[in-house]
């Protein structure tokens, strides 16, 4: 079976999309701390994803949406493009349109990530490149 290669998109386009999204994030301080409000009016979905220990989402990309993740717990490993790292708790991660990405739980407890879709999309907009559950596209 031939492996699919994600379509390319210009770096300038993805940087502009990320910049525009991040500019709409509002942070306000309060006597008790602060809050961050994320743009959601055009979000296709806002999810809390829980990944069990030693489990992984598929390595995938999307043709119709970018994503913005916030790592909520320790124990996650994130891959975006060719970069792989362990995000800090509350680290914010932008995933450009058509960029391969995945999240794994390498910890001992369930771990969560918040996901915001940026663009008009649905659950069918997943192109799986690798999947431990045999669901490649």
In short:
Helices cover 9% and strands 42% of the residues. It contains 1 helix and 11 strands; from the N terminus they run H-E-E-E-E-E-E-E-E-E-E-E.
Distinctive features:
137 residues, mainly beta, Jelly Rolls, four-stranded antiparallel beta sheet, globular
Present the secondary structure layout:
Elements: H1 11-23, E1 26-30, E2 33-37, E3 43-51, E4 59-61, E5 66-71, E6 76-80, E7 83-85, E8 92-95, E9 101-105, E10 111-118, E11 127-130
Antiparallel strand pairs: 1-2, 3-10, 4-11, 5-8, 5-10, 6-7, 6-9
Structure write-up:
- The chain is mostly beta strands.
- The chain has a domain at 43-130: Jelly Rolls, CATH 2.60.120.10.
- It has 1 helix and 11 strands, in the order αβββββββββββ.
- The strands form 4 sheets. It has a 4-stranded antiparallel beta sheet with strand order 3-10-5-8, with no helix packed on it. Strands 7-6-9 form a 3-stranded antiparallel beta sheet, with no helix packed on it. Strands 1-2 form a two-stranded antiparallel ribbon.
- A hairpin with a 2-residue loop joins β6 (76-80) and β7.
- It is globular.
């Amino acid at each position: 079976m031939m492996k699919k290669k994600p379509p390319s998109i210009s770096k300038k386009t993805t940087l502009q999309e990320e910049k525009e999204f991040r500019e709409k994030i509002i942070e306000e301080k309060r006597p008790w701390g602060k809050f961050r409000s994320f743009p959601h009016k055009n979000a296709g979905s806002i999810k809390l994803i829980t990944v069990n220990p030693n489990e992984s989402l598929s390595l995938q990309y999307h043709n119709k949406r970018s994503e913005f993740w916030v790592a909520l717990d320790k124990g996650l490993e994130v891959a975006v493009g060719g970069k792989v790292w362990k995000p800090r708790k509350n680290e914010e991660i932008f995933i450009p349109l058509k960029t391969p990405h995945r999240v794994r739980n390498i910890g001992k407890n369930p771990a969560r990530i918040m996901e915001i879709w940026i663009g008009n999309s649905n659950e069918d907009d997943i192109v799986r490149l690798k999947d431990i559950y045999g669901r490649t596209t």
